[in-house]
Specification:
87 residues; mainly alpha; 85% helix; globular
Length: 87
């Protein structure tokens, strides 16, 4: 919608998530007084799986399909957030 190549948009989002997740992890440790190792372990497993699947899917999909998929997922995410606020 913003005129940005969807593949570039996915890459930018991925790079933006790294410092956000890192800071969230640091704040989790600070405010919870320690680490429950199940959370970082499951996040690392999910990230490792996604690191292999994500680029492959992005490479194989056509740009127009990615653009539509991003739009649909953004709308679902927005509706879910609004529903969480009001329910």
């Amino acid at each position: 919608m913003g005129g940005v190549n969807p593949k570039l948009s996915i890459a930018t989002t991925t790079y933006a998530e790294v410092p956000i997740c890192g800071l969230a992890f640091v704040f989790w440790i600070i405010f919870n007084g320690g680490i429950n190792y199940i959370y970082p372990l499951t996040m690392c497993i999910g990230a490792a799986i996604g690191a292999f699947i994500g680029p492959w899917v992005t490479f194989k999909m056509k740009t127009e399909k990615i653009r539509k998929l991003i739009g649909v997922l953004a709308m679902i995410s927005g509706i879910w957030c609004i529903a969480k606020i009001f329910v």
